[in-house]
Amino acid sequence: MPFRKLNDIQLDTLKELSNIGMGHAATALSQMIGQTVRLSVPNITISEISRVPDYLGGAERLMAGVILEILGDARGSIMLLFPQECADHLLDRLLGSRNKTQGMDEMAISALKEVGNIFASAYLSALGSLLNITLIPSVPRLAYDMAGAVIDFMLIELSRNGDLALMVETVFSGDPGQEHAIKGHFFLLPDPGSLEIFLNAIGAPHD
User: Quick check: 168 and 188 in contact, CB under 8 A?
Assistant: First the structure.
């Protein structure tokens, strides 16, 4: 099913499923970093992947991106993006105070990959259980660069067909009173053929 043919009911259903999946992911991430993480899905959009940097504050904004493929009964990819300052706050929480002038060292890269792996595993496990299908994440990859370059990396590494994406935009943050809230964006990009699997599993009406 082409992305553009999804109707409002189908998009709302996918959004609700994502909210449930995000609840599981938030719990897993909170346990990992020892800090409350809250997640929301403010929007599901159908857009050109090349426009994703616009949602993130511009193509030149420095980002840390964890990218995973979705394997199993449905295929696609997951992208978890942190602005540089939020990635630094998250790493400080995980690793303690670091020398940030040296950028991403091996330990920092490993920690962010593990965050992406735990997050994606919890999300896909919850989604798979709800839909009664098997969804597992691939080994995570990390891209640390300007937002435009991170998106280009994703397009090349995942060899995506076409420029359109179904983007489940998820914003996660800590308690309002915390000094440094951890914020980022999560994008679920199912392959077009996998949309049929999702819609059939949830019983959503479609042509």
Answer: yes
Query: Is the CB of residue 66 less than 8 Å from the CB of residue 148?
Result: no
**Spatial contact of 90 and 113, defined as CB atoms under 8 Å apart:** no
* 137: nearest Cα among 68, 183, 59: 68
- Cβ burial of 132 (10 Å; 0-12, 13-18, 19+) is exposed
The mean per-residue pLDDT over the stretch 171-192 comes to 72
| CA neighbor of 45 nearest in space, from 176, 151, 188, 154 | 188
Q: Is 33 left (phi over 0), alpha (psi -120 to 50) or beta?
A: alpha
Name every residue whose Cβ is closer than 8 Å to that of residue 44 and which is 6 or more positions away in sequence. 11, 14, 15, 18, 166, 167, 168, 169
Where does the pLDDT of residue 52 fall: very low under 50, low under 70, confident under 90, or very high at 90 and above? confident
Above pLDDT 70, what percent of the chain? 83
* Cα 11 to chain centroid, rounded: 17
Of the listed ranges 85-99, 112-126, 187-201, the one predicted with least confidence: 187-201
**Cα 97 from Cα 81, distance rounded (Å):** 21
Question: Do strands 164-173 and 62-72 pair parallel, antiparallel, or not at all (unpaired)?
Answer: unpaired
Closest among 60, 17, 3, 7 to 170, alpha carbons compared:
17
Which residue reads 């504050």 in tokens?
57
Model pTM greater than 0.90?
no
